[in-house]
Write a structure and sequence with these properties.
Strand 1, helix 2 and strand 2 form a beta-alpha-beta unit. This protein has 2 domains: 134 residues, Aspartate/ornithine carbamoyltransferase (Rossmann fold, 3-Layer(aba) Sandwich), CATH 3.40.50.1370; 156 residues, Rossmann fold (3-Layer(aba) Sandwich). The two termini are 13 Å apart. It has 11 helices and 9 strands. The protein is 36% helix and 15% strand. By secondary structure, it is α/β, with parallel strands linked by helices. Strands 7-6-5-8-9 form a 5-stranded parallel sheet, covered by helices on one side. Bound molecules: N-carbamoyl-L-aspartate (NCD). The site of N-carbamoyl-L-aspartate (NCD) has 10 residues, from helix 2 and helix 6.
Length: 312
């Protein structure tokens, strides 16, 4: 039985096969519409979510399966003090696969140790978010045509942004990627990502504070929200929240084919006027997330595919 706790739980080959399967599903949805009939996905969300939870549920429904779960810790027995270990033992007998989001780093990993069904990490604190990474890769591959040889800028809250940590862990495995890390000094990438991921893999990276300086060099810009819920005090959040606001004026410094990604939700960091720009692909990115999650569910459940064989 396999879980997806970190993007590194899939090899690069397996990841590419999963993206190939997502392409197949995207191009021929009806072939897959009953393939998970009788299977159940549990969504165990101890933290707020719109896209991740609903795209997981849409993914399972699109495959002909069913969904059950909870969308906040308050509405589950966590509010009574139940541990993740006990919850997952029980859910294992109610569902075939589960996606878990939790404010504590490592909670889905703990769950996987007590689970008899595959556990997917749908975001654990400021740590990892591997299915957002698959969504990001699928978007880049479909819209840029490759996962190698580009300069990517990560901008905003690189300290607490789990989507950033996971995407960097993934992209250091591909060739010719240059990373430009744009943040205020207080929100720089954590030292474990810098040392154990970027430096350990010999990645080409620069840390800077100016978005304007970075923009002309980028093939991809990955904007992020300042993660209010992970701050220790509100004053720091208020001081830092509007450090970067991407607008049409700044965007005039960028290449004509640069793609703007954002895991969403957006707060202030991208002006609404940018939504009309053909380079803004964040809503498309959210749409594509359903197809990678469909591919992931099929892969982890080891479901035979229409022409035989499994995906990874
Ligand atoms: C992200 C998350 O939850 O980490 N959202 C998402 O899953 N699409 C990013 C965020 O909350 O800022």
């Amino acid at each position: 039985m396999r879980h997806l706790l970190s993007p590194l739980d899939l090899t690069v080959d397996e990841t590419n096969r999963l993206l190939d399967l997502a392409d197949r599903i995207y191009e021929n949805r009806s072939v897959f519409s009953e393939i998970c009939h009788g299977k159940k996905l549990a969504t165990l969300f101890y933290e707020p979510s719109t896209r991740t939870r609903l795209s997981f549920e849409a993914a399972m429904l699109n495959l002909g399966g069913s969904v059950l779960g909870f969308s906040s810790a308050d509405s589950s027995s966590a509010a009574k003090g139940e541990t993740v270990a006990d919850t997952i033992r029980v859910i294992s007998s109610y569902a075939d696969i589960c996606a878990m989001r939790h404010p504590k780093e490592g909670a889905p990993m703990v769950a996987s140790q007590f689970s008899s069904i595959p556990v997917i990490n749908a975001g654990d604190g400021g740590h990892n978010h591997p299915t957002q990474t698959l969504t990001d890769l699928f978007t880049i591959r479909r819209l840029k045509g490759r996962l190698t040889n580009f300069t990517i800028g990560f901008c905003g809250d690189l300290k607490f942004g789990r989507t950033v940590h996971s995407l960097i862990e993934e992209l250091v495995r591909y060739t010719g990627i240059r990373f430009i890390l744009i943040s205020p000094p207080e929100l720089k990438i954590p030292s474990y990502v810098r040392i154990e991921v970027l430096e350990a893999n010999g990645a080409d990276y620069t840390e800077i504070t100016s978005l304007e300086e970075a923009l002309p060099q980028l093939d991809l810009l990955y904007m992020t929200r300042v993660q209010r819920e992970r701050f220790f005090n509100e004053e720091d959040y208020i001081r830092l929240k509007d450090t970067y606001i991407l607008d049409e004026r700044k965007l005039s410094l960028a290449k004509p084919d640069m793609l703007i990604l954002h895991p969403l939700p957006r707060v202030n960091e991208i002006a609404v006027e940018v939504d009309q720009d053909p380079r803004a692909v964040y809503f498309k990115q959210a749409e594509l997330g359903v197809y990678v999650r469909m591919a992931l569910i099929l892969t982890l459940l080891n479901i035979p595919l229409p022409e035989g064989g499994t995906s990874c």
